[in-house]
Amino acid sequence: MHTIEHTTAVAASVALVDTVATADLGRPTPCAGWDLLDLLSHMTVQHRGFAAAARGRGADPDVWRVESVVEAVRKDPARAYSGAATDALEAFAADGIGEASFALPEFGDGAVFPGTIALGFHFVDYVVHGWDVAASLGVTYELPGSVLAAALPLVLAVPDGEVRQLDTVPFDAAIRPVDGAGELDRILRHLGRRPEWTAPMLSDS
Predict the structure, then answer these.
(1) Cα 95 versus chain centre, distance
(2) CB neighbours (10 Å) of residue 7?
(3) Has residue 37 been placed in a domain?
(4) Residues of the domain holding 181
(5) End-to-end Cα separation, the chain, in angstroms
(6) 8 Å CB contact between 144 and 131
(7) Residue 81: CB atoms within 10 Å
(8) What is the DSSP letter of 77?
(9) What CATH number is attached to the domain comprising 152?
């Protein structure tokens, strides 16, 4: 079963996305080449894909197709996202989920992981993607210390180096941490984010 820290991170991302208006969807994000619509569509379909994987259907490529959710996100980002997040958390609450096999084809053809590992991937994703959304919106991102403490060792276990150049690895090369950095700063830098990133001003034209 997923942990309370995992649930808290997902709930925090839902609360952030609840504040997104359709006019915000063109905002740039810390994810190179993605605007907020791209990011939220990715986050939404990943929830759907992980929920399907928890139910034994992760090998179906259709459950990971971002095109399947883009229009719903464009029309009502908060509703589309919260529905997908709820679906994932409900799937993760099933008995024996930690021992289940999750097919996650985005990690390579035929890639299958134990539930405990797969849930860790999902947890880390939504800790970091929550920050991505907050940074895009220009708002403060805060998570309880217990959530950051639980996520940090999972993040630091993600290998750095040449492996980050593979198409199946979703993170850029790690950025050297600064002295005295807090846990969120360390998480972001290890996964290739720059905590000081701010969205450029959008043109009024």
Answers:
(1) 24
(2) 18
(3) yes
(4) 4-190
(5) 49
(6) no
(7) 25
(8) H
(9) 1.20.120.450
- Give the model confidence (pLDDT) of 87-128 as tens digits: 999 999 999 999 999 999 988 889 999 999 999 999 999 999
198: CB partners within 8 A, 6+ apart = 135, 138
Tell me, yes or no, whether 112 lies in a domain. yes
d(CA 123, CA 155): 10
The token pair at 151 is 């996520």
Which runs of consecutive H residues, i.e. helices, occur in the chain?
Answer: 4-17, 36-54, 70-75, 77-92, 115-137, 145-156, 183-190
Question: Is the whole model's pTM more than 0.85, yes or no?
Answer: yes
Length reported for the chain:
205
Q: Any idea what the Cα angle at residue 21 is, between residues 20 and 23, rounded to 5°? A: 125
Q: Is 76 a domain residue?
A: yes
Domain count, the chain: 1
Question: How far apart (Å, rounded) are the C-alpha atoms in residues 176 and 194?
Answer: 10
Closest CA to 30 of 138, 106, 117, 108: 138
Q: Is 61 exposed, middle or buried (0-12, 13-18, 19+ CB in 10 A)?
A: exposed
**Alpha carbon distance 170, 102 (integer Å):** 18
13-43: per-residue pLDDT in tens? 999 999 999 999 999 999 988 999 999 999 9
Domain contains 198: no
Structure-token pair, residue 118 = 């797969």
φ and ψ of 183, to 5 deg = -65, -40
